[in-house]
TrEMBL record:
<dbReference type="InterPro" id="IPR044543">
    <property type="entry name" value="YHJQ-like"/>
</dbReference>
<dbReference type="Pfam" id="PF03860">
    <property type="entry name" value="Csp"/>
</dbReference>
<protein>
    <recommendedName>
        <fullName>Four-helix bundle copper-binding protein</fullName>
    </recommendedName>
</protein>
<dbReference type="InterPro" id="IPR005560">
    <property type="entry name" value="Csp_YhjQ"/>
</dbReference>
Length: 115
């Protein structure tokens, strides 16, 4: 059920996953900045912000039933896959949880892109 128009939204699962992933990425970003090996995490920190932004944009486009949602969701899936790969290189809990959220989001975005 969409929030404002109260109609069924076929994109809602993907919107929710994108929002969760974006939140996870921002939380992980903040936690990574406080790790002692922050220099080793530069690529990870960079992709975390990129992934969060991509997920936010995907969520917004799906909410308005934008023209390019399939293309954007495919790119979002690719970005989430890369973020999951980077995060999974670090063994701390926040990176492992973020990597899982990214994988889940990537799967939902691939489904969305295939509609």
């Amino acid at each position: 059920m969409s929030v404002a128009t109260m109609t069924t939204n076929k994109f809602q699962t993907c919107i929710d996953e994108c929002n969760r992933c974006s939140q996870a990425c921002y939380e992980c970003f903040k936690a990574c900045l406080n790790e002692s090996d922050v220099n080793a995490r530069k690529n990870c920190i960079s992709i975390l912000v990129e992934c969060a932004q991509m997920c936010q944009m995907s969520s917004s486009l799906m909410s308005m039933n934008g023209q390019f949602i399939k293309d954007h969701c495919q790119l979002c899936a690719t970005t989430c896959d890369k973020c999951a790969q980077e995060c999974s290189m670090f063994k701390d809990e926040h990176c492992q949880k973020c990597a899982q959220e990214c994988r889940t989001c990537a799967n939902e975005c691939r489904k969305m892109a295939g509609i």
